[in-house]
TrEMBL record, chain A:
It comes from Brevibacillus ruminantium. Keywords: Bacterial flagellum, Cell projection, Cilium, Flagellum. This is Flagellar hook-basal body complex protein FliE. Belongs to the FliE family. Signal peptide: none annotated. It is found in: Bacterial flagellum basal body. Its main location: other. HAMAP family: FliE (MF_00724).
TrEMBL record, chain B:
The basal body constitutes a major portion of the flagellar organelle and consists of a number of rings mounted on a central rod. Belongs to the flagella basal body rod proteins family. The keyword Ribosomal protein does not apply. The gene is flgB. This is Flagellar basal body rod protein FlgB. Pfam families: Flg_bb_rod. Residues 14-37 form the Flagellar basal body rod protein N-terminal domain. Keywords: Bacterial flagellum, Cell projection, Cilium, Flagellum. The keyword DNA-binding does not apply. Structural component of flagellum, the bacterial motility apparatus. Part of the rod structure of flagellar basal body. It comes from the Bacteria.
Length: 99, 136
């Protein structure tokens, strides 16, 4: 058993790589993130609507599945709206900055 | 925009639920009426056929051009139907109301109606929150 193994770790210099992203890269990754999130929200809405139809046609006996899907889609929509509000708010805040 | 397919389905289902409620109440009220036959509301299967388009009675009109206006049924047109079995007999008086069955159907209908009202309310809440911009 090599007890002194820890002493060797001092030789390893912590290499802090500060990778710099170009503005184009940042905006691209952010836009893809945003588009993924919106797609997910839309998917939740569609799923909720489909479950509603199935419940109306009596194909679903378990009401909780429908209500949970409905609440999920509703919450995701609220979150999206709030994020949008915050983004617009911050944009207006920046625009008000005295230069 | 407001009156789309989903809202139509919900509305029709709520109508059917109310009709079923009245039908069951009528059955229960007539439990001692001689020769009374209990009635049932058939709706879910009809709606299912309508949505999946498997209904054979609903023939699409023959159109020679895709731009012709389709006549006949378009959209949700399923209406609940009241059916009855004229040969059913439960009591000696010719009455075929089964109290336990009616109570069961009544409870099921209440749950169905409650769920539908919740979903309808949720639909409108979502629309309103979008219109109001999420409420600041």
């Amino acid at each position: 058993m090599d007890i002194n193994a820890l002493s060797r770790t001092g030789q390893i210099q912590p290499q802090l790589q500060t990778k710099t992203y170009s503005p184009a890269e940042v905006s691209k990754s952010f836009s893809s993130f945003l588009s993924d999130a919106i797609t997910e929200v839309n998917q939740a809405q569609i799923e909720s609507a489909n479950l509603t139809d199935k419940f109306a046609t009596g194909q679903i006996q378990d009401l909780h599945q429908v209500t949970i899907a409905g609440q999920k889609s509703s919450l995701m929509l609220q979150l999206t709206l709030q994020v949008r509000n915050k983004v617009i708010e911050s944009y207006q805040e920046i625009m008000r900055m005295p230069l | 925009m407001l009156v789309n397919n989903h809202l139509g389905i919900l509305e029709r289902s709520l109508d059917a639920a109310m009709l079923r409620q009245r039908t069951i109440a009528n059955n229960m009220a007539n439990i001692d009426t001689p020769h009374f036959k209990s009635k049932q509301v058939v709706f879910e299967d009809l709606l299912q056929q309508e949505i999946s388009g498997s209904s054979s009675r609903n023939l699409a009109a023959y159109r020679t051009n895709a731009r012709h206006i389709p006549f006949g049924n378009s959209g949700i047109t399923s209406v609940p139907r009241i059916v009855s079995n004229p040969d059913g007999i439960v009591q000696n008086s010719g009455n075929d109301v089964d109290m336990e069955f009616e109570m069961n159907e009544y409870a099921k209908n209440i749950i169905w109606y409650g769920g539908l009202t919740q979903l309808t309310a949720g639909y409108f809440t979502k629309l309103r929150s979008v219109i109001e911009g999420g409420g600041k």
